[in-house]
Amino acid sequence: MSLGTKFFSKLFKMQEADFKSLELDEGLEEEFEWDWDHIMEDRHLFKMSDEIQREKYIRSLVEQVRDASNELDKLSNEYNAVTAMLKDMDEIDALPMSEKVGLQDAARNIIYYEEETQEYEAKKSAITEAQYRSMERFEDNMPKAYEDMADAEKYKGLIKDDLRKLEGEKHAFLYRQDELIKEIANLKGMTVICVFAAVLLVIMLLVLQYGFEMEVGVGYIVTTLTSAVAITLLYVKYTDAVKEKKRIEKGINRLILLQNTVKIRYVNNSNLLDYLYTKYNTGSASELKRVWEMYELERNAREQAALNEKELTFYQAELLHKLRKYQLNDVYAWLHNPLAIIEHNEMVELRHAYILQRQKLRARMDYNKRLAKEGQSELKDFVKQYPEYSAEALKMVERYCTDI
Questions:
Q1: CA 94 to CA 332: how far, in whole Å?
Q2: Which pLDDT tens digit goes with each residue over 355-369?
């Protein structure tokens, strides 16, 4: 194991197997044209001999791996919950028909009394049954869910604006840098020309003085003064151009760091919104809020059907009692999906919905795994290429990653 690998394994407690790549869902491609797979593409422009640039470079790598690791921790619980639900579906599908009959009877009675309640308040119903079931599942998340979704949508717009501004500013800096490089080269050429011209004039004056015995003292003075003024002006302009070029290079490095940070935020924010839209079966926060408000009205109306609710509660308890006989992870989830126990097509649709949720989670996890792996690889390459700065990198990891 190389020095870089040992270094990273010790500090981040990550194994190479943890970064095994998963295929991304093609549906996650964003309309915004950025190279999301190579966040660090511009970091070769950093000068590692510069302490400030080197510190920023190492810190950006360490924070990249730390943030990706934290994001993976957040995603793992929900991913496990979705996977557990899929395993429960397999468990129910594998039951013999003799045992399924009892579950189907209880589920059928649940559906019957739910339909009775719906008929009682049909005229008041403002949302579909599918929407009601969906909102019922996520009742504990509301109304915070649509508030978070609205904030995420607003944040996405702000990030896109920031990226456009940063890219425009970066192009302006690069254009100015090219201009300065040309200007410095031109000034050097002009200096050579001035020196050559001064030498040539001196030679001519010497020829006139000694060859033709002419008085050329004024010529020497004019030549000296002119050359001095010209070279002084060229030197001043050259010095100013070099100073501005250094300032521009620092500005470009600053913009690259900002772009990399904002690009990472944009991807995570976009993937989060994509997952939330799928999870809550909505196209926007405003739509989710509208459905939620209608759900609240519907829920209040259904509470009036007291008798039907009592019967419904009884058969729900019966279904739970029957489900607890089997090795299920979440028996309560089936209270919201009794039709899936009866109809195979409904079970297939429900399975598809959970598989889609898991794909979205896998895509987000895969992105953060690749992000962490890229940061690890770059830091390992940095330690290998600049072993004299390995101690500095270690201190940076201990400083910014004490929570990993």
A1: 19
A2: 999 999 999 988 888
